[in-house]
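Reproducibility note. Readers wishing to regenerate the assembly model reported in the main text can use the exact inputs given here. Chain order matters: entities are listed in the order in which they were concatenated for prediction.
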Amino acid sequence: MSNPSGQIIVIGAGPVGLILSLALAQADQKVCLVEALGDDNFLEQVPRAGTNHPATLEMLDRVGLYQKLEPRGIIAPVFHYWDRHEGKRIAAFDHAHLKNDTRFPYVLQCERIKIVEEALKMAKAQPNIELRLSTEFLAFEQHADGVTARVRNPDGDEETIAGRYIVSGEGARSIIRKDLGIAFEGFTYDDRTLNIEVAYDFRKHGYAERNYISDPTEWSNLFHWKGPPDRWRVHFPTDPKANEDELMRPEALQARLQGFLPTGKPFDIVGSNLYVVHQRVADKFRVGRAILAGDSAHVNSPIGAMGMNSGIHDAINLADKLIAIARKEADDSVLDRYERQRRHVAVAHTQAQTIRNKRLLTEQDPAVRQRNHDELRRTSEDPKLARKFLLRTALFESLREAEAIV
Ligand SMILES: Cc1cc2nc3c(=O)[nH]c(=O)nc-3n(C[C@H](O)[C@H](O)[C@H](O)COP(=O)(O)OP(=O)(O)OC[C@H]3O[C@@H](n4cnc5c(N)ncnc54)[C@H](O)[C@@H]3O)c2cc1C
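Running the prediction on these inputs yields the following structure tokens for the assembly.
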């Protein structure tokens, strides 16, 4: 059995597991971080999250990651809503309205893969983290004083790791959540989302670095990422009955892009993938010494960029509580507060907001669409309303509300 000390076992070196491990280690806590991927395949992960909101930038800064990510990302103070049906911009929101609220009045467009790459380098250099790459977590047990995790190491042998707590940063398919029998309630959208990555500068058509585009038949999101190659990610809905091979054919991808922006010339497509979107929250975030954080506790549509961001907020909230317990400044019941705070945010903010965002982009009723668009326009043009709106989308409101939960 490895290290039967007071360490905390973190499963999964995604953004949540890594940031939790760094925050714990920087406060002198010993961490054993277990990740199935190894140095040979860690960077071969499909494109996912990438918009980092101001409240999250403060947390990335706290663990020393912000300064490493800023040069690899794009600072984007403004985002847009567009009406594709009318071919018009509806509203532009400028984070400059938050200049007195945060040191970061902008989002940083910096993809998850760059975040985990930089965070992994930091974890490797951090003496309080025992990093177990190419190691698959299999199962765990808990008892009054601690936990044990069963893993398969790179040699294919099973071994047991002991610790004080175990945290699932395993993502949506969490074994810990399933082993604990925790329900993951919610729903899955019928339509999969098609993601196309294209090397083309959409700014010359008036788009911002980040755009939400409503349309009753084919809504879209459009985001800019720093290269090389400099590229834009375009999201489209798909017919639930359509066959995956058909949807992903190069000619079909080109046709989608030409439908969105007819240039008459083929787009330089640098990547594409199709994904299923779930809206689910775990019934419990904690059972005894086992705790869920990030996608293992909640999953949502990427419209609004709240999944990874809220997972990082879980990680920082949880790190502070585990540190307080270790320093005997709090007892173990603070972990129930973690659950109350972060589950509230998952349900009342992340789920509610992402479901609303999708409805806004897909609304069919012309009168409701018009009303929604008028409200967005009015909000963006009134500095007080715009600030209030941005405090919510930049995730400060959810943090303040969570802080008030005892
Ligand atoms: C297309 C798309 C776009 C998105 N865009 C955004 C966005 O702009 N902003 C945003 O906030 N969110 C976005 N999200 C959501 C975001 O990607 C996730 O919320 C985020 O990655 C969750 O982080 P995590 O660390 O909890 O889990 P993950 O990122 O899933 O990481 C889990 C880690 O655990 C490891 N692991 C799993 N099982 C085991 C095991 N048994 N043993 C050992 N290791 C294991 C995995 O290999 C992985 O490294 C998007 C998602 C998608 C699909």
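We highlight two features of this model. The two ends are 38 Å apart (CA to CA). The longest helix spans residues 334-362.
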